[in-house]
Amino acid sequence: MKLRYLSVGILLLSLSCTQRQEPLSAPWEGEADSIESDAFDLFQIEQAGEMIGLTLSGPDTYYDFRGRHLGLHYLLCQEFAQHLGVKLRMEVCRDTAELLQRLSAGDADMAVIAIEADSASPGWKIGEGKPELREALRSWYRPTMMAEMRETEKRLLTQPRVSRRVYAPMLSKGVISRYDKLFKYHSRSIGWDWRLMAAQCYQESTFDPKAKSWAGACGLMQIMPQTANHLGLAQTDIFKPEQNIAAAARYLKELDRELSIVRNRQERQNLVLAAYNGGLHHIRDAMRLAERDGRNPHLWSDVRSYVLRLSDPRFYSDSLVRSGYMRGQETAEYVDNIKKRYEQYRRSVR
Q1: Which residues 6+ apart lie within 8 Å of 189 measured at CB?
Q2: If DSSP codes are grouped into helix, strand and coil, which group holds residue 111?
């Protein structure tokens, strides 16, 4: 039973103590004594300020894309939570059996995946003892909402990822950008060619220090706010060029350390770039699958093919995969584009 149940239990106990001060003949006294302490329906959810959902990883359910949580059912459930005025906490299960077992145990309020055939609701399964929550969902839901939410997600995924000004790939002959000195200085801490870091910056923001993505990534190196907090970059400094580049260098160094098992420096750089874009856990999933299939998990060309396959349920549902579904096409192209631009910079700038 979740900790939030305890706070509601305290509330009920307090109410019970108040009621005992009433005359013994109070008409509601017997009803108060019959209240179950573990009841957690709509009223308690609203009091706790949080609704807990269980789901599975997948393109229509829930996945992480560049720091933004997406998935048709997740987005719809988020809208429902906002309608109720509470936050949504989504927890991902390995399979349907685990999901149903946890729901039955009272670990969550609902299973946010199409399980029950019901045109009057999204098909989600509501936990036992929550008739008010079930009725609230049925009253709120309209059959057209699924199509509307699918269009919302499609719009998010097809719009330009970053809102930015587009600068030329090179400022002038022998000069890549106005931030070259910063790349040269901060790339030393990770032992990278500064031109590789510059190529990554162009891919991220086209050298626009004010760039911001629809997912919330900010600045030259497109750092997410939560990543900035992890790196010690103040939110007030996230758009400042030097602070942003310095934080990105710290993050690249951290990823490089996490992937230190890859001995070849160039291959490790490719995997670090992929992790910077698609997430370290997804890249490790792809590496495990590659190794299982007799491919080289330390070779980007081998791992790349599994990054792409993580959008296929035959692969993202595999027991070796810990982070589920991944939109791998962007990550594969991200690394490819940076490598291509880096080679251009190497030929043009010393």
Answers
A1: 249, 250, 253
A2: strand
Q: Which residue blocks in the chain are alpha helix, DSSP H?
A: 3-20, 29-33, 42-48, 72-84, 96-104, 131-140, 145-158, 180-186, 194-205, 225-231, 241-258, 265-278, 280-292, 300-309, 313-316, 328-348
Q: Nearest to residue 202, comparing CAs of 344, 58, 88?
A: 344
Whether the full predicted model's pTM is greater than 0.85, yes or no, is no
Sort strands 50-56 and 110-111 into parallel, antiparallel or unpaired. parallel
pLDDT one-digit tens code per residue, 286-312: 999 999 999 999 999 999 999 999 999
188-207 residue pLDDT tens: 999 999 999 999 999 999 99
Eight-class DSSP state of 88? E
User: Measuring CA to CA, which residue among 195, 171, 187, 173 is closest to residue 339?
Assistant: 195
Query: Are 270 and 339 in contact, with CB atoms under 8 Å apart?
Result: yes
